[in-house]
Amino acid sequence: HTSNNNNNNTTDGVRFSSNHCQRHLFWEQLPGEATATCPADILPLRGAVYLLYDVNISEGFNLRRDVYIRMAVFVRRLQRRNKRFRNVRLVLPPWPRLYHWHSHGLAQTNLLWRHFFDVESLRRFAPVLDYDEFLAEYRMFGHPAPPFVHVSQVFRLTHYEIMLEQGIFRDKYERVTTPPLPDACNEKSLSGGALLQQPLLRHGRYHCVRFQGSAGLLERLLREAIREDTAGTEDAHDMRVYAVISAETVLHDNWGDEQFWLARRSMRFAPQLSQVAADFRLASLGTTDSTAGVQRPAMWELERHKRDARGGDYLCAHLRRGDFVKSRESTTPTLKAAAQQMKQLLRAFNMTTVFVASDATPYELLELKELFYRFRFVHFTPESKWQRNQLKDGGVAIVDQLICSYAKHFVGTYESTFTYRIYEEREILGFNKASTFNTFCKALGGNCARNAVWPIVWPEDADEDDERFY
Ligand SMILES: C[C@@H]1O[C@H](OP(=O)(O)OP(=O)(O)OC[C@H]2O[C@@H](n3cnc4c(=O)[nH]c(N)nc43)[C@H](O)[C@@H]2O)[C@@H](O)[C@H](O)[C@@H]1O
Asked: Based on the domain organization, do 251 and 278 belong to the same domain?
């Protein structure tokens, strides 16, 4: 683990610590001496634990956002409750090219989170690092031999074959040690996420872990790993790196509670994406935050409970097509049936403009547009090749979500996480529930399945959340 560098090596402009900072010497020195011989920026990182994670390769963007919340809530709590994890960091997995990102000719593999989200805002909820920030921070420790990152243990999560024990769902996990390993656990398999393919990562022990339960259970798993990696008091506070892959296996500690919503509110989109959406709302829908009565404070911490948002004078419909047309045929409307429902809503609310967010093909969009000859049909497409290159497919989808979040009325697709994220955004913005929690039916009229309604929860006592246990 220790570096034998006698020099202050520099690679890519990042300074490596010298042997004065080798771990055994470094942590045992008196604070004064350590300060004198070690870069000041390492001192606050004493005992850092970096938790890398990734999500099953086939999961879409919006489920990944939900997995992030599970992990962020867990890590925030861990940091506050437990001394050994005072310097825990959640490392945000680079976005692989997702299965739904169809556009060719765009550089859309290994995207950083700041491309889509305001990472500073995330950080005010939980200690997170974008992947390049992690690499830079890790290098400050000067070991092992740079530029590689040594992940001491990897946990590939997989479900139990039988979930219930005598009818009861119990939180539990176990490392699978006797062959045959479940197929998903193959060390070479990418299915749990492509994280281990990152060129600079090298990993030590790889475990297949059957896991059932909420994120809080990961604390035990991490403590166990730290115990195994610690020889004695001398390395008890060493920096550690662990990775959890297929992290979607982990459930929320408490879905939809205060912590969930704090994390959710901190997930603000990157300012450049919000700007594109605001410009489009002004140019094509003639609405601004103030005319729509939807003003969001600069920081999510300053948001307060309200239900008076009016929204821009347009209906927004999220109409999921693509794989839903076949795989969810019984609940996904045809274009014609969707148009009928949208027109009915336009008439009911005395509106003339519909904004459609969809993963439909250009041909389907043309077909749909033709069904709206008495109304204004608006759809967002990047205004230039340059803008498409900047936004990429993931950014275009976020702009669509933002535009829908500011509409007077919204209708979404049954069981689409894309729709659910818009519901949440509108809850944060302060719309009334009736304007938000609406679902397309397979056909106009008659009974049909509706999405669940999960209203926002605001903290009752903001101070309580800051309680620290160490
Ligand atoms: C049943 C599951 O549903 C899951 O989809 P679902 O929850 O809708 O939502 P997502 O998991 O986000 O995946 C759908 C992806 O399709 C694109 N997409 C969908 N709707 C729109 C839209 O209105 N505008 C734009 N620009 N793009 C859209 C976008 O890339 C989005 O992340 C799938 O990820 C799973 O593979 C699976 O099929």
From this structure: no
Model pLDDT, residue 143:
66
**Which protein residue has the closest C-alpha to ligand 1 atom 33?**
60
Average pLDDT over residues 241-252: 97
CA distance 173 to 8: 43
Residue 211 has pLDDT above 50, yes or no: yes
Residues 14 and 151 in one domain: yes
State mean pLDDT over 190-209: 95
Q: How far is the CA of 100 from the centre of ligand 1 (A)?
A: 7
Calculate mean pLDDT across residues 57-84: 97
Euclidean distance between CA atoms 438 and 340, whole angstroms: 15
The answer to whether residues 275 and 225 belong to one domain is no
What band does 161 get if pLDDT is binned at 50, 70 and 90?
A: confident
CA–CA separation, 286 and 124 (whole Å):
33
Q: Residues 407, 315: one domain?
A: yes
Please check whether residue 185 lies inside any domain of the structure. yes
Grade residue 29 by pLDDT with cuts at 50, 70 and 90: very low
pTM across the whole model = 0.91
Candidate of 97, 276, 354, 359 to mutate for ligand 1, largest count of ligand atoms within 8 Å of Cβ: 359
Which amino acids are annotated catalytic?
Answer: 59
